[in-house]
Amino acid sequence: MAIASSPAMARPGAPMSTPAPPSDKSRRAGSSPGEGPVSGQSETREYFRRLRRRLQVFLVAAFVVPLILLSGYFHLQFNVTLKKSSELHLTTLAESQRNTINLFLQERVVNIFNLFRSSDFRLSPSPDEMRRYLQYLREMSDAFVDVGFLDPAGIQIGYAGPYGYLQGRDYSREEWFQALQGHNYFISNIYLGFRQKPHFTIAVKQLIDGRPYVLRATLDPDKFYLFLRTIAKGKGVTCALIDHEGIYQVVDPDEGEVLSQSGYRPPKDTGSGAHRITVKGSPVLVGYAWLEEVPWVLVARQPLGTAYAEMYRVRRILVWASLAVVLFLGTTVWITTDRLLKKAEQTELSRKELKSQLLHAAKLVSVGELAAGVAHEINNPLAIIASQSGVIRDLLDPQFGLEWTPEDIRKELDQIDAAVYRARDITQKLLKSARRTEPRMVRCDVNQLLEDVVSGVIEREFEVSDIRLVRDYDKDLPKILLDPEQMRQVFLNIINNAGDAIQGGGTITLTTRHDSESVRVTITDTGVGMTSEQMEKIFQPFYTTKEVGKGTGLGLSISLSIVQSLGGRIEVQSMPGAGSSFTVVLPIVPHEEKIDDNRA
Fold first, then answer.
1. Could you give the CA distance from residue 205 to residue 191 in angstroms, rounded to a whole number?
2. C-alpha angle 309/315/318, rounded to 5°?
3. What pLDDT sits at residue 518?
4. Tens-digit pLDDT profile for residues 381-392
5. I need a surface site. Which of 176, 191, 247, 336 has the fewest CB within 10 A?
6. How far out from the chain centre does Cα 423 lie?
7. 0.85 cut: is pTM over it?
């Protein structure tokens, strides 16, 4: 064992160096008869009092300070994440409303196009026909105010709506009419026009007998605002539409007036986004998204306190939870340390009284050590874990007063872990051997799978062991359906076995070939080889030709199970003293597809 379990052993390298308790001789030197016990007890108590304070401060700092630093770091990261989440939420809301408004405008354009292209539409519509056209549009949406029909010169020759004086008006100089000349349809900004009332126009153009005629309709911004409110979502969120010059097109009356300057122009190159601004002295989170049909941007505003309300709530919970954890850990460490050291102090004070009894028990201890030695020799293979755990208990038992470090404990635990991990490895391999799972089939390059296994650590280990690795790959090897992870495990098992079979240097050859039905992977070594009796047993679970402690006997059994689940097989050739050759034969067409073809 790396550490003896003798109580008399002093352990160097402890993380915190403290003076040893005062010895009996130091207490007795210079003290008068009758003062020794009392003086010794006072010195011991003073020593443990100082030690208790130092340990408590050290342990509280070691546990609490890192926790405080980590809590602060994660708190800052959490705030940043929640702020980004709030901004992303508002951006998503703006994009969703933007898409809804785009769809609304597109539907209105389609309504006008459908009316214009209807079979009963005439180039010289009567007032009744125009009123019927307006009624049709209002059935599609109550946002339509009126409808007008313009000849190629821009004169409105047909009209229906509340502004009868617009009949016969010349629109040829209107901005929307001129912009329409290069497009099939046009959606204007909000403007006053002849009626001196805010509205916007949707106009569509159609060539009839080679001449451009225009059908236009106006929409009420108030109805459009009501539509905008119905699609608005989010607590405390207000929405508005602004053009590229920052002019309100649609806005809540409490926020501003239509056609007034908004004072805010979001960047157009980003398409959508969110950031903080100050409105009337109050911080506001703004999300924006530019529309596609018109050069407008939808702006969604939310007070910062509302947008970050969830973040503030969670932050308060985290702060109080962190404080509670810090206080709990600090108090626990303080109380636990105090109790342990008080017990150690009582042990030290009782040492003198126990000394005579311990001297009397020395013979019994010798007899016990002899018996323990005999038992150790008999039960050594079965007592590794018990022995190491006994050492750890001795180290932690305050009665022995041993000095130890975490590294000492880790060394003992490593030996326990080695036995536990070996047992765990056997059980895991046994489960893999017994369980047959369907592979995850993907097309793989077998040559690349072999390279994944041997390149790197394994190849360097072979070089150190004077084992030469020869590759003889078929460059035209087709990709086949395999489970790559399982096949790497198969190749790794066989290649490791080949390396273990070679003693004093040798060669391992990796060969790949294919025919019309299968891909063959041959792994040949110049190792010790196997007898016919050994070859009959190599695929049996727990059978191994390696020396005790080097193999579990499950590798080839698991490999055969994997290959057979893919419809393949493993062929083995070997002679004692001449080496071994393992060939993995894998079908190019998976066996499930062959079964389906035969049934068809």
1. 20
2. 150
3. 92
4. 445 577 767 777
5. 336
6. 32
7. no
Specify the amino acid at residue 29. Answer: A
Rounded distance between C-alpha atoms, residue 583 and residue 513, angstroms: 10
Q: Which fold has domain 224-308?
A: Beta-Lactamase (3.30.450)
Tokens 């806005």 found at? 251
Alpha-helical (H) ranges within 184-308 are 221-231, 304-307
Going 425 to 426 to 429 to 434, the CA torsion angle's sign is negative
Rounded to 10 degrees, the C-alpha dihedral 446/451/452/458 comes to 140
CATH topology of domain 40-219+309-360: Beta-Lactamase (3.30.450)
Q: Which carries the bigger pLDDT value, residue 501 or residue 356? A: 501
| Residue 36 φ/ψ, nearest 5 degrees | -55, -55
CATH number of this structure's domain 442-599, picked from the four choices 3.40.605.10, 3.30.565.10, 1.10.260.40, 3.40.1190.20: 3.30.565.10
Contact 217, 202 (CB under 8 A): yes
For the chain, the first-to-last Cα distance in angstroms comes to: 68
User: Which pLDDT score is estimated for 374?
Assistant: 34
Judge whether residue 590 has pLDDT over 70: no
CATH 3.30.450.20 residue ranges for the chain: 40-219+309-360, 224-308
3-state secondary structure 331-395: HHHHHHHHHHHHHHHHHHHHHHHHHHHHHHCHHHHHHHHHHHHHHHHHHHHHCHHHHHHHHHHHH
* Inter-CA distances, 435 with 428, 517, 565, Å: 11, 28, 11
Structure tokens at 590: 């998976």
